[in-house]
Specification:
By secondary structure, the protein is mainly beta. Helices cover 8% and strands 38% of the residues. The strands form seven sheets. A nine-stranded antiparallel β-sheet has the order 11-12-13-14-28-24-23-18-21, with no helix packed on it. Strand 23 and strand 24 form a beta hairpin. The longest helix has 18 residues, at 3-20. The protein starts with a helix and ends with a strand. Bound molecules: beta-D-glucopyranose. Beta-D-glucopyranose (BGC) is lined by residues 98-99, 242, 282, 320, 322, 326, 345, 347. Residues 98-99, 242, 282, 320, 322, 326, 345, 347 line the site of beta-D-glucopyranose.
């Protein structure tokens, strides 16, 4: 995009910012999707796409990491606020943030010992989390520039498709993998995130979004008062390195039972071996599903302060609920700092370390097959 066009977009963005300050009810707008530059990385342009629906809900997505940079939804007064942790410029992302808003892959979550065996052959991955490989290794999909394509708008949604081609052998994984993530912002106030992938050789695949939510709209507030429901009767307990032991344990009578709504902070400090190992919640829940792969509600999150609610539906079998235990005020020096438990992740995905657990649902993708998963974030308000 040339510089003159860039100024035009800046003017449009300025107007968008002005409009965003108005209560939603006073605005009647069409949905839209606009592109601006978000800076440069690896000598290449990083684009930022602003998707807006008819109610003014706005998702900003960048091509670096196919990441959600901000997500603005109305509170009970109709005021828009950003409900995910993120930055207004590219620099902090390049300096290293813990996967804020990113599409993580080729394998989201941990692989024990950075090692798996496929068809008798041993594969070694980067140890970027103690002895484990985490979120695709040293330079996973969150640290790659994706190719963006604006899809034709439908009557009820705007959509952006991002593509990343991961070479065979990249980060130690076999096969060239072509991954697509489509963000579809719908006028019914839902953001659908659709994943597709194909491969040239058998490989494990696990793609997930790593947004940190804080429904208050204020990233300085703790998420401990948020109320969470998780539709799961079991979870996968972990060892000291946060690797599943292989057991699918009942949540009955534990701090892991979120089948009825609970404030996140209400049990997080209780004497529980699993909470101690996770430094809080950092576990995978085994979602209750009518059928494997069925689209079903996984979690509902709400914040009484703002009145905002978030319902998450998914085709995936698992949900990693991470209560932001490793947020520690870093990275500093970029305006905003993100403190302990000021954001929480609800990562819909396959179970951690599945390549080393034959009993877990398989994450193996073979040539000729298409990996296909879908997660929907539905934004709402608590009844008054
Ligand atoms: C993991 C955490 C990790 C965080 C950021 C989450 O998905 O479960 O243990 O600290 O990602 O790296």
């Amino acid at each position: 995009m040339d510089a003159t066009a860039g100024r035009g977009w800046v003017a449009i963005l300025g107007l968008a910012t002005l409009l965003a300050a108005l209560p939603v009810a006073t605005r009647a707008a069409d949905h839209s999707i606009i592109e601006t530059s978000f800076g440069r990385a690896e000598g290449r342009e990083v684009e930022l796409y602003t998707l807006t629906n008819r109610h003014g809900i706005e998702a900003r997505i960048m091509t670096y990491g196919a990441a959600i940079v901000s997500l603005r939804t109305p509170d009970r007064e109709g005021r828009l606020g950003n409900i995910v942790l993120g930055f207004d410029s590219l620099a902090p992302y390049l300096a290293g943030v813990p996967y804020f808003g990113a599409a993580v892959g080729r394998y989201a979550n941990r692989i024990a010992g950075g090692h798996f065996i496929l068809a008798g052959k041993s594969y070694e991955l980067a140890h970027n989390d103690g002895p484990n490989s985490l979120h695709g290794g040293a330079r996973g999909f969150d640290k790659r520039i994706w190719q963006a394509q604006v899809l034709p708008s439908s009557a009820t949604a705007v959509a952006l498709r991002l593509t990343y081609r991961s070479a065979a052998g990249e980060e130690g994984y076999p096969g060239e993998l072509t991954a697509h993530v489509t963000y579809r912002l719908q006028d019914d106030d839902r953001l659908a995130i659709e994943y597709q992938a194909t491969t040239s050789a058998p490989t494990p695949v696990n793609l997930a979004n790593h947004a940190y939510f804080n429904l208050s709209g204020d990233p300085h507030l703790s998420i401990l008062n948020h109320v969470l429901t998780i539709r799961a009767s079991r979870f996968t307990p972990v060892d000291a390195h946060l690797i599943p032991t292989g057991e699918l344990r009942s949540v009955d009578n534990t701090a892991f039972d979120f089948r009825a709504p609970h404030a996140i902070g209400s049990r997080i400090e209780s004497q529980d071996e699993q909470l101690r190992l996770g430094h809080g919640y950092d576990h995978n829940w085994v979602l209750d599903k009518p059928l494997p792969g069925a689209m079903a509600v996984a979690a509902v999150l709400s914040d009484a302060l703002s009145g905002r609610t978030l319902q998450i539906e998914t085709t995936q079998p698992g949900l990693q609920f991470y209560s932001g235990n490793f947020l520690d005020g870093k990275p500093a020096g970029h305006g905003t700092v993100f403190d302990f438990r000021t954001g929480l992740c609800l990562e819909t995905q396959h179970f951690p370390d599945s390549p080393n657990h034959p009993g877990f649902p398989s994450t193996l993708l073979r040539p000729g097959e298409t990996y296909s998963e879908r997660t929907v974030l539905a934004f709402g308000l608590q009844p008054r």
